[in-house]
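TL;DR need structure tokens for one chain.
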Amino acid sequence: MTHAEQGSPSATGPDAAPEPATARRDWAWTRLDTPIGPLLLAATREGLVQVVFHADARTARRALTRLEQFFGGPPLSGLPHLATAATELSAYFAGRLQTFTMPLDWSLSSGFAAQVLQVLATDVPYGGVVGYQDLADRVGEPGAARAVGAAMGSNPLPVVVPCHRVVASDGGIGGFGGGLETKRLLLALEGVLPAPLF
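>> reply
TL;DR here they are.
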């Protein structure tokens, strides 16, 4: 099993301290209540930069501390891309939006993980799924299925960059950093799985 499949953060995962930015950058954040629990959204002037699951006070505090260190200062009260992200995510959870149009800031991801996540974001549509091996093939690294799993675990933009659409080759739903119940709910929302009865 990969780190992502076990649900533990990888070295570049959401709990890892990112390398600080070279210069101070403007950023802002908000918390969005959703059917899968509160999400913390952070954005820069370039686009949405992070989505954090289960954003209770403690989780949000840890994420905000890391972002403040990475961006070299405290957040602003708001930015246009943050408002767009909140609006689009609200529409997605209400079943009114299937394709996100907000710009993304990839500065919290790099290397192979960023390559995999960018292919995932553009190639796997709403209501579709892809296997870890197939995604490795799509990025031209057929022997890298386990590394794809690690990339999913390091995804700074879950839901928007749909790591919930990556499933195991044996027909199981695979792992998920936000928890398997969250993954099931997202797949049910997109019609991949039946909706929970209760």
